Amino acid sequence: MATSVLEHAPARDHEASGLWSWITTVDHKRIGILYGATAFLFLLLGGLEALLIRWQLAKPENTFLSPETYNQLFTMHGTTMIFLGVMPLSAMFFNYFIPLHIGARDVAFPRLNAFSYWVFLLGGLFLNSSFLVGAAPDAGWFGYANLTSKQYSPGMNVDFWVIGLQILGIASLAAAVNFFVTIINLRAPGMKLMRMPMFVWMSLVTQMLLLLAFPVITVALIFLMTDRVFGTHFYVPAYGGDPTLWQHLFWIFGHPEVYILILPAFGIVSEILPVFSRKPLFGYAAMVFSGSFIAFLGFGVWSHHMFATGMGPVADSVFSVLTMLIAIPTGVKIFNWLGTIWGGSIQFKTPMLFALGFLFQFIIGGLSGVMHASPPADLQQTDTYFVVAHFHYVLFGGSIFALIAGAYYWFPKMFGTLLSERIGKVHFWLAFIGMNLTFFPMHFVGLHGMPRRVYTYPAGLGFELMNQIETVGAMILGFSFLVFIYNIWISMRGRAEHPAPADPWNGATLEWSIPSPPQAFNFAEIPTVSARDELWHQKQQRGGTLPEPQRVSGAGIHMPNPSYWPLVTAVGVLVFFLGFMMVGWPLNVAGGLLTALGAFSWAFEPAG
Amino acid sequence: MSFRKVPSWPARRRVWLSLLAVALLAACGGPFPQSTLIPKGDFAQMVDEVFMTTVKWAVLVFVLVEGALLYAIFRFRAKPGDKQPEQTHGNTTIEVIWTVIPAAILAFIAVPTVRTIFRTDEMPAGAMEIEVIGHQWWWEFRYPEQKVVTANEMHVPAGKTVLVKIRTADVLHSFWVPQFGAKRDAFPGKYTHFWFKTDSLGSFTGQCAEFCGTQHGRMGSLVVVQTPQDFDQWVATQQVGSPLVNNGVVAVVAPADSAAPPTAPADSVMIKGQQEFMAGGCIGCHAMAGTPTAGVLAFVGPNLSHVGSRQRLAAGMLVNTPENLALWLRDPQKVKAGSLMKLPHQLTEEQISVLVAYLRAHQ
Fold first, then answer.
1. Is A317's Cβ below 8 Å from some Cβ in B?
2. Which residue of A has its CA nearest to B118?
3. A64 touches chain B (CB under 8 A)
4. Is A542 in the B-facing interface, judged by CB distances under 8 Å?
5. Which stretches in chain B have pLDDT values below 50?
6. Tell me, what CATH number does A353's domain have?
7. 1.10.287.80, 1.20.920.10, 1.20.210.10, 1.10.287.90: CATH of B11-78+89-121
8. Which residues pair with A351 in a beta bridge?
9. A280 to chain B: which residues are within 8 Å by CB?
10. Which residue among A87, A197, B123, B253 sits deepest, i.e. has the most Cβ atoms within 10 Å of its Cβ?
11. What is the pTM of this model?
């Protein structure tokens, strides 16, 4: 691709550096890195919580953790991994790569983008500050009424949870609007929808799910908050409220939420498998339609989380059949991925190892999901370790493996150096073995009668050996993350001596056509796209390779100015919500005013 | 809808699936007394059949698809000097095939699923009702027909269909005894239900299966299946002092196995125990035959009128021995932290031994 090269162009941009430049950044790439670093730290925290859980469960009637502490740990483990781990890690990739994939210079609303990040950070810190006052949420990540009512959860634990999730919801909604508009409006000339990289397609569908699902949980949480703070009775049985209402609202959000967690992973894997098989994604249109169909159907299956609640045979049957129906487009995707590597020339670089691990594990998770879809069978499986096995196979074996694959794949583009292949392979095998050792036995211990969310179990039920194996597996998994961190550290330390080229993997998408790391304005000239897998198309036309892109001065390219108003507005949001937990309306008013100040200033400042 | 009998299977398929069940059972550290894979009743049998159907298809799909994946990984690994592979973009025929075949497999799962859903919803006539009420963190069982109220240990007669109607007195719980095939969540203000009939005599453990707070993990239950004669005998004993019978009114009597006359001497364990029971504040939370709380149905703690006859204490946590009962009375918070049994004051060892004798005398 032709880039304008200026003689004596500086080797590095004069990119702003220093803490203030990060605090005021509106650059999607920097925001992506902020999301990634923050989310990774929360992921490690959630992992630590998991290791503590596994240590407690390693032997029956263990007294390592008190029941109250255990209940806080499993609640925070779930909440952290979902809202502070997987979702923002996906957001890292949305942020960094959606504009690059569609040939844009940034997202549609750069300051809203920064706002989303700051709200996420503040919400995550707020939620975890509950540990400091010994009142971490302890009613499960799903917070079923009426356990969460003021009567049965009088402490601040549930308040932290309700408010924390509402704050995080604002971040997600703002980001969803941003990426949705970006994908629809900012595509480069020739980048038709059916030429977009599959990662962008899956991200687009995810944003639509976010936009439709998060308002539902917001309503559910508002009801719970007014029950707890203002004495309403939405979920209070003594006054005619119904705890089942919470379950329906929660799962109408909760089921699309799990597709929000997996679709970006589908997108990442759909980028990696073709590149490392050296052939295009098999069945692009089928992949687009199946992904969209999964998302659409995902709104019709929520009560499969409620098969034990006695909804009646008609409701049970309808939700059962709809749930089984989702298996069809999911199967289509799995087969298309198989079709992609079939007949290819598979290079077992680390991104590919994790992508293949994803495939192997997601198939298992999908099959146990189909087993749940049958209510009579589910009457035994629900609320046991069988379910814990299922969702860890799809969330860890699926989403997290895909996110790690994406990290190895896109690291050179983001940081200008490759992660070590040698250490990467060690990381993969430790993770793969650890993952399967931890979660495969859970299928069995669940079928043998071990319920979930239990802080201990009696001896003599046969659960001991499987729990020990699972704990060993968890330790191996934990160690694999240390190996990952080591890889990142040692690769970053040596990046000056080992710069990565623009296109280390022979990629098919536009991000590989610009320097590693990219300059602030991304593309010196907005590209014109004429095909799917545009870069492969260009390379084919030029006899196989493209010249290494040069860094240019970027003069005359108009980029948005940095701004601190997104951070100010985010702080206002936090203060507003704090008012529901302490001090009361003065804080609500102060927060509201600060939010308004931030938003107005942001609206009227020169955009640059 | 007609109530069709469970279809009989070809013997070979039954053998294959039993082998699979045995293999699953044998895996890693049995025996498994609380397993869902050892159905002990008609409801459980139906559930198990649908489950085994899903297992069969899941294993088949697993072998085929993972097999294809592993094959592809080996067969198509890059070798030095590889040419660029054929740049296939897709194949409509194959897309149709691998959409239709999974749909067909799902139909093979969906049909028996829907059939079983409706079959298990239908209730055989003449069932014996038991009301299950979940509390934090113990189970109350009320038998409306037999007028029995007990806790944590449910006795049922073999060979008779039992209809379990479930609700909660506080937060959501879920009643689950794996070998009888189902769990149902306990809601406030409405009943869920399931039913079962079993011919297997013995004691079967269960656990609460809906997170209900601090001690959700130790909210166990026990179902004791007896011959009809033994069950009737149990009912007769339990009726003494039941709040559903004459409001629980019954005079304090000497232990059943003593030859003493009905009116007990003043220093008998029953009189002294009852005094301790009332002075110690126990009647604030527990109904007990022979005390002013005898007729109370709704209480924070279990009815103790027949606690001596139960196999376990504290919802399955402790085997019912004098030592364990003393352990519990000495410091219930130490045994079950967060439990709602908070003693107004520490009991002396003498008080504890009197209470243990008194409680254990209530068979």
1. yes
2. A313
3. no
4. no
5. 1-11, 254-255, 257-261
6. 1.20.210.10
7. 1.10.287.90
8. none
9. 87-89
10. A197
11. 0.94
